[in-house]
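Give me the fold.
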Amino acid sequence: MELRGIWLTNVDSKLFHSRDNIAEAMNFLAETGFNVVFPVVWNKAYTLYPSQLMQTTFGRKIDPLYKGRDPLAETIAEARRVGLKIIPWFEYGFVSSYKQNGGLLLAKKPEWAARDSQGNLLVKNGFEWMNALDEQVQNFLIDLVLEVVKNYDIDGIQGDDRMPAFPVEGGYDVKTIARYHQQFSSLPPRNHQHQKWLQWRADILTDFLSRLYREVKAIKPNILVSMAPSVYKWSLNEYLQDYPTWVHREIVDIIHPQLYRRDFGSYKTLVQQLVKQQFTCSQLNKLFPGILIKIGSYRISIDYLLEAIAYNRSVGINGEVLFFYEGLRENDNALGKALRKGPYANSANINPLN
């Protein structure tokens, strides 16, 4: 039993540009030994499938790049054809836009904007955020996920470092301040890192995930709820992602902390923290870390990738998810060939997916 996953993006990738591209990619991944794909279905305020919810709420049915198509349906069909499992990935989560002052989502729903302690629109690393603590915003995200669960033959759904997530600098909107005041008879601390205030907001996100988990399972009990948070404790202190609690409360089926380090020594240190401090032996079967193989000008070396996979197996971690697909194809498929010859040479089933 092993999970061998890959993220499929529409950024820095032509994969979704045509059905032929998708089919060719699925052939390659199946031949290379992968068994599950995580295709993006929500980013830049667009869906990669025709969404009735987005049409009704924001007047945009699908990313205009894919007008007249359904990349999600195409990916499912091509993945099924070669025996791959498929878990759609809601990449943007609670993010409304990137360097667009909130973009169309907040232009249409200004009351959904998150606020920092100065009352400004909440921005972190160029990303503008919806208010993840607001029930209306939470309902919208859950409805978006459930739309995919109801309408498509999938094996799971995935959130990441943006769902459930919220920059620690946020929570200073009128509604959240009132909610905090009602509970504690005081205003939220101006120091956004204040421990009680931080944990209170993190608990709201955990409750959101609990509800998402319950509602997904009510529709299709057998599909997996998968999460790819930032690595703990940074995830909690910066984005209110308290994932040890998620695992403890059993509101996530598989989890892929993003161990995005650029050398094997740093990666190994993070794996040791996961195995020794964050996960018990009985929880290890849920853990499949995220490994960065390509971003910007960075490329992982073959040696580092093979060492990371070997190390995962040596400590009882039976799988990983790689970010992202295009990295496998560079230099005449060098990484793909190394996996096919090495750790992914024999095919593997995924439990509890098989």
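Residues 3-94+141-167+195-341 form a domain with the TIM Barrel fold (CATH 3.20.20.80).
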